[in-house]
Write a structure and sequence with these properties.
13% helix, 161 residues, 3 helices, mainly beta, seven-stranded antiparallel sheet, globular
Length: 161
């Protein structure tokens, strides 16, 4: 059997449209940690569980693995600049945006379409990622259109007539 073409898989997966989030937590040293992620999904309504995944090679993985809480900040259309900032290696990602401490100190961003403040329920290493399952302790939502990502590009959500 020939080796699996991971680039073809990546391209095919890119055809799936996702929302854009900033996942955040507090490191064991109290420092805020955050990154752009589009691997967020609903898992269960009862109990209220959500999940997301992070590459094992990410410099932030140890902080999320050790944190007892995390927040998933679902970005609104006007927050594309923050998405790009948290996907880049800038020294202080939190220097922009209006941030507050949420459950367990996980940073929560104002102006999002939704925020899920979670207690870490379970984590598991699968393939080259770590899967994080969170129990939703508090949520916020606003009637704002979400930022979406598809085919390697940001898009605005339009309504069908």
């Amino acid at each position: 059997m020939p080796p699996f073409d991971t680039q073809a898989l990546r391209c095919a997966l890119g055809r799936f449209t996702t929302g854009v989030t900033i996942a955040t937590c507090r490191g064991t040293d109290g420092v805020r940690v955050g990154l752009t992620a589009n691997s967020f999904n609903a898992l269960s309504l009862d109990p209220p569980l959500v999940l997301w995944s992070l590459r094992r090679a990410s410099p932030a993985v140890a902080a999320f693995q050790a944190a007892g809480h995390f927040a998933i900040n679902v970005l609104a259309e006007g927050q594309v600049g923050l998405s790009r900032r948290f996907a880049s290696p800038v020294p202080d990602r939190f220097a922009e945006g209006l941030w507050a401490d949420g459950v367990g100190g996980a940073p929560v961003l104002a102006g999002c379409a939704a925020v899920f403040e979670c207690t870490l329920h379970q984590q598991e290493t699968l393939g080259d990622h770590v899967l994080f399952v969170g129990r939703v302790e508090r949520l916020h939502e606003a009637a704002l259109p979400p930022l979406v990502f598809q085919g390697g590009h940001y898009h605005l959500l339009g309504e069908m007539l």
